[in-house]
Amino acid sequence: TAIELGRLFYTQIVITNAAREGAYYMATHFEDANAAANATTAAEAEAENSGIPEITVTLDSCVNTGNCIVATVNTTVDDLTILGFVGNIFSITTTHNSFDLSASVEMMAE
Prior knowledge:
This protein is α+β, with helices and mostly antiparallel strands and 110 residues long.
């Protein structure tokens, strides 16, 4: 319960940091041929170094702006007993016995 909420908050912080790393890399290396792959690797490394080994990373351009990058990181936190208790906090949606978490970061390309 309190520990599970702590796991959710910690995981949300980690994937937000991972999204920030991916967006930063993409924004500062926008012209490189391998920028998207390297930005994804940077986000995955940030999450894995913090104990979250399985994430998905999506990189897009901002709507109506060509110089902006949006990095979105998703992951799932499994084996929680507080399902149905929390509802929808921090973009959390319930699935059978897990919470799906998502974090997005926008950054201007340099």
